[in-house]
Amino acid sequence: DTGVSQDPRHKITKRGQNVTFRCDPISEHNRLYWYRQTLGQGPEFLTYFQNEAQLEKSRLLSDRFSAERPKGSFSTLEIQRTEQGDSAMYLCASEGLNTEAFFGQGTRLTVV
Amino acid sequence: GENVGLHLPTLSVQEGDNSIINCAYSNSASDYFIWYKQESGKGPQFIIDIRSNMDKRQGQRVTVLLNKTVKHLSLQIAATQPGDSAVYFCAERGRKLIFGTGTRLQVFP
């Protein structure tokens, strides 16, 4: 257990539905990252926050994706109108001032 | 990732042998690299890192070598154990981590 929690661990949804994932980082970590990983590939960067500010978003993050970190603590990643291509593992990582990034166990999304 | 890539998708080694996993990168300005281990159903786990002012860094049973001339780094695992079976990623660290595709290490008895 790295101290980074993600919920849910698994999500099956029908195409067109909205889904929301939550990440609880290590409490003193000010940076939080979201990554997406498909089978056989390395994690791909989606977005990151420093405290509550979203500082960078990947071009992978289409208009259907939105991430928030309202109080600089937990974060949510929402996908609207899900598509089959959204099926992947969504990983969250948190990082402190002088630490490496610690990853959660991910949320596996299956869109049917 | 656009800057890092791995030579082999799968590496099979016998328990007790040494393992070498290779990684190439394309951005000569890259100055910080990290190796991650990812077991099935888990997120990536930090193994060891190296900065560009170093050629070699050692940890417990692991060594990372960096060759800036040919933009190549490797992860050496000594006396490979069944628990080392996982997918290994090299990642370039700038403002964010950029991962390569990964190498699956399989350890057989």
Compute the average pLDDT of chain B: 91
Q: Taking Cα atoms only, what radius of gyration of chain B do you get, to the nearest Å?
A: 13 Å
Quote the average pLDDT of chain A.
95
Structural class of chain A: mainly beta
Question: What is the terminal-to-terminal distance of chain A?
Answer: 30 Å
Number of strands of chain A: 11
What attributes does this structure have?
heterodimer, A: 112 residues, mainly beta, four-stranded antiparallel beta sheet, 11 strands, B: 109 residues, six-stranded mixed beta sheet, five-stranded antiparallel beta sheet, globular
Describe this structure in words.
- The complex is a heterodimer of chains A (112) and B (109).
- Chain A is an all-beta fold.
- In chain A, the strands form 2 sheets. In chain A, strands 2, 4, 5, 6, 9, 10 and 11 form a 7-stranded mixed β-sheet that branches.
- In chain A, a hairpin with a 2-residue loop joins strand 5 and strand 6 (53-57).
- Helices cover 0% and strands 50% of the residues of chain A.
- Chain B is mainly beta and 109 residues long.
- Chain B has no helices and 11 strands.
- Chain B has strands at residues 4-6, 10-14, 19-25, 32-38, 45-51, 56-58, 62-67, 72-77, 86-93, 97-99, 103-108.
- In chain B, strands 2, 4, 5, 9, 10 and 11 form a 6-stranded mixed β-sheet that branches. A 5-stranded antiparallel β-sheet of chain B has the order 1-3-8-7-6, with no helix packed on it.
- In chain B, strand 7 (62-67) and strand 8 (72-77) form a beta hairpin.
- Chain B is globular, with a radius of gyration of 13 Å.
- Chain B starts with a strand and ends with a strand.
- At the A-B interface, strand 5 and strand 10 of A face strand 5 and strand 10 of B.
